[in-house]
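The passage that follows is intended for readers who have already worked through the single-chain material. We present the inputs for a multi-component assembly, then the predicted structure in tokenized form, and finally a short commentary. You are encouraged to pause after the input and sketch how you expect the pieces to fit together before reading on.
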Amino acid sequence: MSATEATRARPSWWRRRRTREAGLAALFLAPSVVVFGAFFFYPIGRIVYLGFFQQNQTRTRQRWVGTEQYVEVLTGDEFREGLSITVRYVLYTVPAGLVLGVLLAVAANRRLRGIKIFHTIFASTVATSVAVASIVWLVLINPTVGYLEVDWLRDPDRALFGVALSSIWQNLGLTFIIVLAGLQAIPEEINEAATVDGMSPTRRFFTVTLPMLSPTLLFLVVVLTVFAFQAFAQIDILTNGGPAGSTETLVFKIFQQQQGGAVGEGSVMAVGLFVITFLVALGQFLLLERRVHYGSDRA
Amino acid sequence: MSEPTTDDDVVVAPTTPGLGDVPAARTPSARPGSRARLAKQVGWYLTLTLLSLIVLFPVWMILVRALSQPIAYLTAGQPPRPVEPEWDVFSRAFRQGDLDRRLLTSAGMTIIIATAQVVTSVLAAYAFAFLRFPFRRLAFMGFMATLMLPIEVTLIANVETIRTLGWFNSFQGLTAPFLAAAFGTFLIRQGFLGIPDDLRDAAELDGYGHLGFLWHVAVPVTRPIIASFTVISFLSAWNQYLWPRSIITREAWDTIQIALPKFASENINQLNLGFAAAIIAALPILAILIFFQRHLIRGLTAGAVKG
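Having made your guess, compare it with the prediction:
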């Protein structure tokens, strides 16, 4: 904006009006700016700073250790372990959630009497919170009182998968809603044209529907990945990080450090998590940018 | 949800008028023979019913467990149906779990957060859409940057801030970090930008200043978008877990989401009460899903947010 240039050429009443507008804008933005400043931007600086300090055994004192702690934590086993568990959680929940969501949406995307009832049922898991979904799955897979008599949550090799089941189920509603909206946005003529060409429904799904749906699916991959990265309640409730630390994701480890008073170490992990989520967000942005390009050709 | 388009069935797809010879365009499966058509419909109903049963099975099981007398249920070999159902389990869970108190805390927190988010987002969105001020683009990018920053990253520093302010175990502590929302600002700004210039001009002719225009034109015109955001905001506040878990240290301040798992694990021989409590906790959101489905779905599809 070449504001200064423009104002010089304008009459004084205009400049006054401009100042008033800026004043009003400041007033309107102030509440948000205060909240974001105090709880988003300041804490970023704060965790970077806290990462330079180490707490003593009893967590009563801290001393400056410089970048030493950063190197130690970010190259250490704990961080690598947390990250690899987090990535595994992404791999368990994202592809499965996507496939099941598409399945439900394709099945429910047709003109039938009473189809709205099925829509509501398939969307219903959005009504559950993570806490509720976790308790629901506790009923199903708890080793002592669960319905399926499986011991997954106490088996270090399967516990994470057990936790993932609750997330997959809980995400179904959201995935269904978004895929259905994507399917309904596909122009009907395209489907008709494919049918006139004598394409079988299966072939049409893979050669027409799926490509048209790809921007929606991409968006969902991003959303579900973010969800998986943030997973906390289901782990806290179902396994509490166990057994043998096999479900301690990065976020869970950060929470534990915070609770245990190891603020320095936890802060370094949080900085690591921040860098990773930033890269994921950047990747998302680049992909969405591309999506806008081929999207605009259609419009 | 808008009218579903047919996915694979030309039979029920409306034929485009003017397309001419319709019979030639039909595939074999679409033969007028209504018996084949009926069979196909029945097939879909069966498929959809089966899928519904799978999706709802976990819900059915928690209902079964809530209603069944716990010991009798275990000795009966955990069948998928209620054993010696006790219908007063919900009222007992309510009393023993102090659910009224937990629900009130959750409701208070949710109402404060949702109201504040709507107000701050409308104001900020207005500034970004209609007011000119220096560094507008930069400020907008700063707002959007917070979308990339999950609460998990800033958790340690924010808990420290709340401790310094002495806001542990309080509504201030529960709500402070969530009183503004970049997602809401973005969504409502999009709505504001869609307001036609004619409306602006007309409002100016009527002598409306910015405040008048905001209150009498901009907000009423974008009401559907604001409603969608309100529903989303309400939902994510109600379902909050990590934050309350971090700054609530006294049980008296537990929100329903925090109290649930504790309650469910405290009463191992009264598990039914914990499960009943989980069902009660899901009801308000279920009500929203049923009554505000349109708004909820518009909000979710406008760019999903984390609950």
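Commentary: Confidence is low (pLDDT under 50) at residues 1-7, 292-299 of chain A. Chain A has two domains: 1-42, 70-298. How closely did your sketch match?
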